[in-house]
Automatic annotation (TrEMBL):
Coiled coil: none
UniProt signal peptide: none
Keyword Transmembrane: no
Designated name of the protein: Uncharacterized protein
Family in the record: Belongs to the short-chain dehydrogenases/reductases (SDR) family.
Pfam families xrefs: adh_short
Keywords, sorted A to Z: NADP, Oxidoreductase
């Protein structure tokens, strides 16, 4: 299906089903849960019986207000929801957060890497342009740092655990001109402000994080860890659009956030067949765009070589999942 046909199908024909999976006894972490999809996904999982939900957010006051809102609408116990600080623009914060998860939580069943941003402004955080640091590097760092905890939970409680990344359908239209860079220069090129195409940057970040999901599945097959790693996409909600006319049009066409959030809940309920897969609209779907064919395999390899170096520089040994 073409990108446009898929858009029409998503926005007008198919509505993600109401989630019914049980999250009884489960401990859940959602990043960027202070608003939008993250907040609504937390609300769903509390309704579906989760025993502990951690809202991992950079703005603690905003997250506390979100937790109160969930409590008021679901009438859950105040102990069910906790707010923990996490700033994805800081590798130190990501590591402090992960260490806290490992030491303070007896189990982690579900991790939704939802925090993300799209911006036309070029700004550096840590060693990369901000979109790349937040949507790709910190998200990948969390996946590798917490994989052992998810594996431990799966073994200890004879279950399967999930690490689900919130991607975007827009990965498919990423142009990624920076991929023409010489070997070993992908990130250096993305970090060159004079060459940056910030209209494409968000799409590129979602393309690259899709490669990471596929790469983790290669490094840690489901048979060896019982940790399911997948990537969901929620359909178009109105907030990603800058252009005024497009914003008005999309507002008319867009899904309510609660409906988009069902796709996140589905991603963490779906079985091992989703490992390493793309699951937009609650359906496992072959990936397209620059992930396709030999070109996609080659590009994934190049991205991984450079990303691995970055992750190892932040926390040596983090990428060995065995
Ligand atoms: N909206 C759409 O149409 C759409 C479509 C496809 C995919 N998505 C993806 O869905 C996810 C959620 O987006 P949304 O639409 O729900 O938007 P949103 O309401 O803006 O939520 C984004 C969340 O990410 C957090 N965040 C951003 N930068 C962060 C950082 N450095 N550290 C920690 N948290 C950070 C935000 O925190 P603050 O509240 O502190 O800013 C916020 O809680 C994103 O990954 C987005 O790319 C959205």
């Amino acid at each position: 299906m073409s990108f446009f046909a898929a858009f029409i199908y998503r926005q007008f024909i198919h509505e993600p089903p109401v989630p019914i999976a049980s999250f009884k006894d489960k401990t859940i972490i959602v990043t960027g849960a202070s608003s939008g999809l993250g907040l609504e996904a937390c609300r769903w999982m509390v309704r579906l019986g989760a025993s502990q939900v951690i809202l991992a957010c950079r703005n603690v006051d905003k997250a506390e207000a979100a937790a109160k809102d969930i409590q008021a609408t679901t009438l859950c116990s105040s102990d069910t929801l906790k707010v923990w600080h996490l700033d994805m623009s800081s590798y130190a914060s990501v590591q402090v957060f992960s260490d806290r998860v490992k030491t303070e939580l007896p189990r982690v069943d579900v991790f939704i890497a939802n925090a993300g941003l799209g911006t036309r402004t070029f700004r550096m955080t840590e060693d990369n342009e901000e979109t790349i640091t937040t949507n790709l590097i910190s998200t990948s760092l969390l996946a590798f740092l917490l994989h052992p905890k998810l594996r431990e939970t799966a073994t200890k409680y004879s279950t399967q655990t999930h690490f689900t990344v919130v991607g975007s359908e827009l990965y498919e239209v990423a142009k990624f001109k920076e991929s023409k860079a010489p070997a070993g220069q992908l990130f250096a090129t993305l970090n060159d402000k004079s060459k940056a195409n910030m209209f494409d940057r968000y799409n590129v970040s979602k393309l690259l994080v899709m490669f990471v999901v596929k790469q983790i599945a290669l490094l840690s097959p489901i048979s060896s860890s019982e940790v399911i790693v997948n990537c969901v996409a929620p359909g178009e909600l109105h907030r990603e659009i800058d252009n005024r006319a497009a914003r008005i049009a999309i507002k008319l066409l867009a899904r309510p956030t609660e409906v988009g959030a069902r796709t996140l809940v589905h991603g963490v309920s779906v079985g091992p067949e989703s490992h390493g897969q793309y699951v937009p609209d609650c359906k496992i779907t072959p990936t397209a765009g620059l992930t396709k064919g030999e070109v996609g395999v080659e590009l994934q390899g190049r991205v991984w070589v450079e990303l691995r170096q970055k992750l190892e520089a932040i926390r040596p040994g983090v990428t060995s999942l065995s």
